[in-house]
Amino acid sequence: MMDYDKIMCSRIRDIPPSGIRKYFDLLDGVEGAISLGIGEPDFVTPWHIRDAGIYSLEKGFTKYTPNAGLTALREAISRYMKRRFDLEYAPVGQIMVTVGGSEGLDLAFRCLLEPGDEVIIPTPSFVCYGPLVSMDNGVPVYVQTKAENEFRLTPDELRAAITPRTKAVVLPFPCNPTGGIMAREDLEALAEVLRGTDIIVVSDEIYAELTYGRHHVSMANIPDMYERTIVVGGFSKAYSMTGWRLGYLCGPKELIAPMTKLHQYGIMSAPTTSQYAAIEAMENGDRDIENMKEEYDGRRRFLVNGFRKLGLACFEPRGAFYTFPCIESTGLTSVEFCDRFLAEERVAVIPGSAFGPGGEGYVRACYAASMRDLSEALERLERFLKRLRAQQ
Ligand code: PMP
Q1: Does the pLDDT at position 392 exceed 80?
Q2: Is the CB of 154 under 6 A from ligand 1?
Q3: I need a surface site. Which of 61, 106, 226, 349 has the fewest CB within 10 A?
Q4: Share of the chain above pLDDT 70, in %
């Protein structure tokens, strides 16, 4: 018998699986279940974008693209970054197309980290940062953001986490799961702390298009920060293109070059059909983003109000498509709450504890779901809370 546990690299073996997955598996095949669990838009990719992918196949564009992505797509990304975020990136050298934002994050850490290097990760935040850092023999340094600070990272929190081993800081804003965003003045205050250091900013801006009321500002927009910031972008969320597996990295050419080399050996090039569809998305997709965002905005208000009416405190999310209500008043841990809510009412939400330190006491409910599902989920929540309170 092979002892696979001994054979497999311990660094990978010892990383716990994502705390999100379990709830999808539990939900599978449950009749009448409602999922507010998955972080995925409920819209189908807009037709004109799908059509561009199909048309590229009809024309027979089925080969590899250049490693860094189709030149036409990199040019489209370059124009888009300028137009939407006032950021200048050269199509050749400063932009590379990746297999989702996920690959972009993986490449960034792999190219930066020596064993023992520390990466500051504000939490609660998306599940992948810490495990990716650990897989590279780096050390995740978690910093808890707080509801009373609107889940923003403060300069004092950042300063306190910096050591001589700090290689990078992740800025996960707009934030999954909290919905927190950083305004220009918040970023300027962090820049004050970073100036004069060699710390790199890995800015996960996958939700940059989805902000409510305030325009997204990138750390790369702040004076002196451009040269140290890697922007991770993607198509999954804004254009509802999760299955196309496409994202991009923008940054100084000295940082993008090694990542392109790694991508060349590990991936070769991102999916060709997706790249053709993505050109259409960037060139003609602004209206789609606005339409979907308007929908999300209505659902966001509905869900936040619903939670508050039921007695659950809930920060009003400023970006992405998640709410993060506090469930401490129920006396349950976030895992107990989610397990019981799923078992008793067949609604999946995700325990805050899955998103790192500071997530306990909260659950994540995604509002990229139909109004009917959201409304039904709130009715079931009301029933569930009544029962819990009767038991207390
Ligand atoms: N970053 C964040 C914050 C996310 O929520 C996600 C997806 N849930 C990703 C990155 C990865 O997205 P993708 O690989 O589909 O672009």
Answers
A1: no
A2: no
A3: 61
A4: 100
